[in-house]
Amino acid sequence: MLYACLTVPALALEQRLAEQPELRSRAVALADESGLRVAEVTAEAAVRGVRRGITLREAVALCPRLAVLEPRPASTLHAAAQLVEAAAGVSPLVEEAEPGTVFADLRGLEGLYPQPGQFEAAMLAAAPMDLPARLGVAGQRFTALVAAKTAAPGTAVRVANEERAAFLARHAVEWLPLVTEHIERLRLFGITSIGEFAALPMQAAQAQFGAAGRRAWLAARGEDPEPLHPRRVVLDSVHERVRPEAPLISREAILQGARQLLRRALRQPRAADRFVRQVRLQAVTEDEQLWERVQPLREPTNDRARLWTVIRTQFEYAELPGPVAELDIELGGLTTETGRQPGLFVDHLRRREQLDEMVRHLRVRFGQSPVAQVVEVEPWSRLPERRYALMDYDP
Question: For 393, phi and psi rounded to 5 degrees?
């Protein structure tokens, strides 16, 4: 088995630097969504003591000439989608672990790429040219990830199975798949490299960190058992997008634009006589801020009024981050169901299933089940109030 990992470290920061390449040689920090702390830094900023997690005030005090950039989630999401498509152009089995990191299963590709290094070159060539993509190839997910992180921008690193343990041993312990608290505990123990962690007994790692410690210990030894979870490609969907000439400010204008998108989506040939299972709404503001909602439908429907009720409710209660420069609607999970044939006789089982589903819905909404049931407790008791008890109905 062979895995490839295509990654762009600090994707959000690299996306902003691609828009302003003159800042690549300067000390730059990317603010987080709150605009109060540092999310990512360049190497020049890190040399001056600026690091992730500190406040912007502290960062500017450490580096007065620091350039601070605001995040643009919409651009970052678009760049992450480009990386996924680049990997999918080489392998049909692709998993996006996080925005900017994509894994691909390379099994069965030997016939398409018979020469060594061909699929590495193909995947790097498909990656966005303005982003410093790196590629790692190994027999395990974690080893491929570490190989990608060590590769130079625009290059690939391949790790053979017999070299995986020695390759991983020399890298920092921070690269292990553990949370920050666990990494800090390892440093208190004097463990600073992956090799030192791999030298521990597995029982010690599992006793300290539980199941995560066992997985990290196996990964450190080049025996990562984590399989690939390929993405689910949604083919049965219709998609519509609009970019108004002027940004939409009022809620009425946004609703009018959404109504037009719904009409256009339902007029597409693919949506004819088909039912919708899920609605995805997306709005991009002038400064590339992203608002997105995904609403699964309890029952598939192709009724425009019902779909519009779902969409209108989402927008009426939405707190949009600014004037909307782009609206996007996707109707997904299209099914061929066009009608339902009711039973000739009363279907008690169907009614019970509907009742259970309604109770689950109410429990999610209110935090507890609002329905109770009478349960027989002590039928032999002479006191009527002790024969039965009222208990929450929990299907």
Answer: -85, 115
